[in-house]
Specification:
Blueprint lengths: L1 E12 L16 E6 L5 E5 L11 H14 L8 E3 L2 H5 L15 E3 H9 L4 H12 L2 H14 L22 H14 L1 H4 L6 E4 L7 E4 L11 E9 L3 E10 L2 E10 L2 H18 E7 L6 E6 L5 E6 L3 E6 L3 E11 L2 E2 L7 E9 L2 E10 L8 H14 L3
Parallel strand pairs: 12-16
Antiparallel strand pairs: 1-15, 2-3, 2-10, 4-5, 6-7, 8-9, 9-10, 11-14, 12-13, 13-18, 15-17, 17-18
Helix pairs in contact: 1-5, 1-6, 3-4, 4-5
């Protein structure tokens, strides 16, 4: 017998089309804003146009290194010998952490040099040290891009310096930024460090500040990466957290640094003011108990198979409903992780999301005598 159980209803705000927010404009060629938890795109301007990502490329470089660390193929303590190619990147006028030829530098220090001070020398050293050549490391970057469905991206080097074959879109850069924040929160903290001091060989320590200007504005930004190329002008991927809400913006084509900072801050603040993030259910968090048939427990705790967040604009009220659909009662035995129903989320009368409901515990059957008694009771009284 299928049963619908009312689970969640709250007056919140109606969904929207991106075109309805034309009242706000930004002085940049390409820009996109996303609610991190729901994945909803809140603002979009030319997000699928080809751009040259410049140093935002380094987000993928760090992701590949973090993946290798996770798989046990390297560690923060592994020492990498600096090649002449890597060393020369600190001599060519590009941003650098200033590593020295034949130095042995830890993966962790190179990551800090890459992330905090945007060191091109650190990128090349990591690429060569972990993949043999920078070209082979770029293959790993492109494999990861394919995994993340970055369909309009190609990486040809680890740093993002001038190369027409190193291209992307702000939408694709948003995808890898969201992946980094979601999957490596413990490593993502490097992106909010305000400075890095490299205790170099053969000279005084070099202290440099983080290139991300929004980190210094005390507005909740905790990453992630700036970029600049003469052909592309100034670019920025930035993520802002306010309590349980996080927004991420990626933009490219600012005419100067001041515009990059002010317009990115403007969009993030607009998004925080304009929208709410509503949690319907969180993965692995018990949200209800359902009836059990012929089990040693009469109720079973259930969880959602995935996070369910909705982003909604303020001041435009409508109704969101979430209801549980399941066969009542659920027959024992039940194993933890078994699918026991569906959670249906509606906007007005339209089903907008449906996810599996899973058992959060094991429930054994009662003995045969009690099962027969329960069956007779149901036949006579219609009651479990």
């Amino acid at each position: 017998m299928k049963f619908i159980k009312f689970f969640f209803a709250i007056f919140i705000f109606s969904f929207f089309s991106q075109k309805s927010f034309s009242e706000i404009e930004f002085d940049v060629d390409h820009i996109i804003l996303q609610d991190h938890l729901s994945g909803e795109i809140l603002y979009d301007k030319n997000s699928d146009d080809k751009i040259y990502p410049a140093s935002m490329t380094k987000i993928m470089t760090s992701i590949v290194v973090f993946d290798l660390i996770k798989k046990g193929e390297t560690s923060f303590d592994e020492l990498i010998t600096v090649s002449e190619k890597a060393w020369r990147m600190s001599k060519s006028g590009y941003s650098a952490m200033f590593i020295m030829l034949n130095d042995k530098v830890s993966v962790e220090d190179l990551l800090k040099g890459l992330i905090i001070v945007s060191g091109n020398d650190a990128c090349v050293a990591l690429a060569e040290g972990l993949a043999g050549t920078e070209e082979d490391f770029a293959i790993l970057m492109n494999e990861k891009a394919h995994e993340l469905e970055m369909t309009n991206t190609n990486f040809s080097n680890s740093s993002g310096i001038n190369d027409p074959d190193n291209y992307s879109t702000v939408r694709d850069i948003l995808k890898m930024s969201r992946y980094l924040i979601k999957n490596y929160p413990e490593f993502y903290t490097y992106y909010k460090d305000l400075s890095f001091t490299w205790d170099r060989t053969g000279g005084d320590p070099i202290k440099q500040g983080n290139r991300n200007p929004l980190l210094y504005k005390n507005m909740g930004v905790d990453g992630i990466k700036t970029g600049f190329l003469t052909v592309e002008k100034y670019s920025l991927a930035a993520s802002m957290k306010n309590e349980d809400k996080r927004l991420t913006v990626v933009s490219s084509g600012f005419v100067n640094k001041n515009k990059r900072s002010s317009e990115s801050a403007k969009l993030l603040n607009w998004g925080m003011r304009r929208f709410d993030t509503i949690k319907v259910a969180a993965k692995e968090e018990v949200f209800d108990s359902l009836d059990v048939w012929s089990g040693k427990k009469q109720k079973i705790d259930v969880i959602s198979s995935e996070d369910i967040y909705l982003t909604v604009p303020k001041r435009k009220k409508s109704t969101i409903r979430a209801v549980i659909e399941y066969a009542q009662p659920i027959p024992a035995p039940i194993k933890k992780g078994d699918k026991v129903g569906l959670l249906n989320v509606y906007l007005k009368d339209e089903l907008i999301k449906q996810v599996d409901i899973l058992a959060n515990e094991n429930v054994k059957q009662t003995n045969i005598f009690l099962r027969v008694l329960n069956s007779l009771n149901f036949l006579v009284w219609g009651d479990v």
